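Predict structure. Chain length: 243.
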Amino acid sequence: MVHTTHPGNIGAAARAMKNMGLSQLYLVAPKHYPSSEAAFRAASALDVLDGAVVVDTFEEAIAGCALVVGSSARERRIPWPLLDSRRACEQAYQEAKRTHVALVFGREDRGLTNEELQQCQLHVNIPASEEYSSLNVAMAIQVLAYEIRMAHLSSQLPADPMHGWDVPMAPADDLERLFVHMEEALSEMGFLNAAAPKQAMARLRRMFQRTRLDQMEVNILRGMFTIAQQWVRKARAVDDRNT
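Prediction complete.
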């Protein structure tokens, strides 16, 4: 963080970093630090805040870093390598496995200077609304810290979103029996138009197929339809006795 004016932003940045598993915070000539406001905003991330390295110059902060990523919402007259936050953080995460990487954030009122940005190998832009693209610096840090976290987790998360599900998925024959039962129950309840039930049932099939029902969910639904049928039949028996 370069020349940060508001100490609350430093504390909020420390909290954002700890939320996402980051810990190395460098502060370039902050206006107010240490600060009770920074500590208050850091909440349970005081270890990150207390471990912050304070330096006098931008050059000291990025010394030893083979990849320096500068955040900026402004377009440049001279084109520079520019990525959105997701792709920039994916690259930063991969390079951080073998070298030191710095993500650099500028002043609250005007960001990084042209001279500072020219010391970066890569620029990153958070694709916010064109009507108002300037983010609070702590919010920008939260966004990039999240993307770093997701880059870290992407290699660990299973490709199958149903991995580790507590009940096996329902096989096709169980689903077909459910749909037959569903049509019978809905017809008895008068929900389906006996003259043209197919379109409604096709849409219901699509809805339940899309949700990937497991075996227990199929059993629950069939139990509900069975109870519904019982009540419908009891009501009809009462009507028959009263007529």
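Summary: The beta strands are 26-28, 53-55, 67-71, 82-84, 101-104, 122-125.
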